Amino acid sequence: MGILKDKVAIVTGASRGIGRAIAEVFAREGAHVVICGRKQDTLDQVAREIGPAVKPVVCHVGRIDQIESMIGTTAREFGRIDILVNNAGTNLAHGPCLEMDEAQFDKMVEINVKSAFRLVKLVAPGMCDRGSGSIINIASMSGLRPQVHSLLYSMTKAALIMMTQSYALELGPRGVRVNAIAPGLIQTALSEYYWRDQQRSSELFARQPIPRIGQPAEIAEVALLIASERGSYMTGQTVVVDGGLLLALL
């Protein structure tokens, strides 16, 4: 019997990378998993590959109408939402901090921060009414230590970490746990800039206690702990999964 048997989870940005890995692990452990992304054909393929426990729903997390539609679809089909994973994110603005413009700023905040705010606002009240629920925000070690030429990504991930703590403080007495995961360098399309370059990645791993790149499945297993009753005494935490890189940056 899976440790998430009959739980209902939403995982955003689940068509690839960390989101997909989390959906796979949750489905493996018995959950009904709603996955969202922007392309129906990609989501359908992911659902076919993972299995019947996965329901694909198109949702651009930057659009409130699509978020509301996804939440409504999930509620109608499954009756409740037990787990929310805010994984969708972007990093569209690499470059010197003084070259960032307002359009880039607004887009990064909309996708990386405001989407989580909107989803929690819609999902958490039902969790509070039932007295149980787990919300997981996928942040980044860049929200704890700034990256060069990545002002907006670091800023938005830091905001997500503080949101996690604030929600945890207020929602804990109502039975809802809110935690974050801060991955280091994980082999995904989003981080390709860092690991595709052999010289750049070699320099990074030379300082990292576990000298290799992380895999999405390694983040997914941490998400499983937090989502399940095995993590029932955890809230307001940011779990760093970075191969020890932060130690080298202290």
Sheet with most strands: 7 strands, parallel
Strands of the widest sheet, in order across it, are: 3-2-1-4-5-6-7
Decide which structural class fits the backbone.
alpha/beta
- Report the total helices: 9
Instruction: Supply the CATH superfamily name.
Output: NAD(P)-binding Rossmann-like Domain
**Which segments are poorly predicted (pLDDT under 50) over 5 or more consecutive residues?**
none
CATH fold-level label: Rossmann fold
Task: Please summarize what this structure is.
This protein has 250 residues and is of the alpha/beta class.
Brief descriptors of the model:
single chain, 250 residues, alpha/beta, Rossmann fold, 9 helices, 7 strands
Give your account of this protein's structure.
This protein has nine helices and seven strands. The protein has a seven-stranded parallel beta sheet, with helices on both faces. Helix 2 (40-50) links the parallel strand 2 (32-37) and strand 3 (54-58). With 250 residues, the protein is an alpha/beta fold. The protein has one domain (8-249): Rossmann fold (3-Layer(aba) Sandwich). Helix 3 (64-78) packs parallel to helix 4 and helix 4 (102-130) runs parallel beside helix 5.
